[in-house]
């Protein structure tokens, strides 16, 4: 498809007397071709940063800009095989003050669509702890219950999780329904999740990188977590655990980020809503009726969230 676009647009430029723009067009399309061809390949770690000044000057006749293989989208530059330590330091140093939150990138930023690289032994422990503390501050201030490194522009298989908003058992009917319980702060490297059983839980889910929006996402009720946990004293320990309910959902959501997947990619079609409306759909049956949802979710009875 890319090749056909290249030929067609080239012919249009020739006929309109803008043949001098063809080299720019060719460079742009070739760049896109290379990116598509490499999408499933094993590539060096890549990151993105705003760099409007690096853009090539526009053609004086048609206004088109040449797009290097290292550029995608306005103001975004692919820095190629980046040094993770250098990038981590740069992200942390962008803050004016040490206790300022990091910038959370939003949907559309390519950092959210790249597969992250292995975190183990990638950073010195001191720098990893500094990153973990900055991400924790950012998560709490947002506020949220998890934050993955790609959400701050770092392609690293690492995230922080904590749920201090959940009620204890028996205190909140909604939390009880979703099996949501308080979750202590944890730093996890290179997590691997395995779904356990066939039960799926349907619930509205939001993301700090798609601020203000929610959708109904089916998640495995139970998962097995294998990961390396970073402790607050800088120590590391291997974990192999089972989790269920809301904690399992948090783990699945954050682990998806490491593969370039957003929760809304997995949503029930037509369930994407402004978060301000979520109170109208406390019972998912209302969402099915008012939003015109279809599929497995229609099998849920009143007050139910689990299928399977």
Give the termini distance in whole angstroms: 41 Å
Structural class: alpha+beta
At CATH level 2, the architecture of the largest domain is Alpha-Beta Complex
CATH class placement of the largest domain: Alpha Beta
Rg (CA only): 22 Å
CATH topology of the largest domain: Peptide Deformylase
Q: Name the CATH superfamily assignment of the largest domain.
A: Peptide deformylase
Main sheet attributes: strand count, strand direction, barrel closure? 7 strands, antiparallel
Classify the beta-strand content into a percent band: 15-25%
DSSP E strands, number: 9
Helix content: 25-40%
What does this molecule look like?
The longest helix is centred in the N-terminal third of the chain and has 17 residues, at 22-38. The protein is of the alpha+beta class. Strand 6 and strand 7 (236-244) form a beta hairpin. The protein has 7 helices and 9 strands. The model is unreliable at 1-80 (pLDDT under 50). The strands form 2 sheets. Strands 3, 4, 5, 6, 7, 8 and 9 form a 7-stranded antiparallel β-sheet that branches. It has 2 domains: 2-72, no CATH class; 90-307, Peptide deformylase (Peptide Deformylase), CATH 3.90.45.
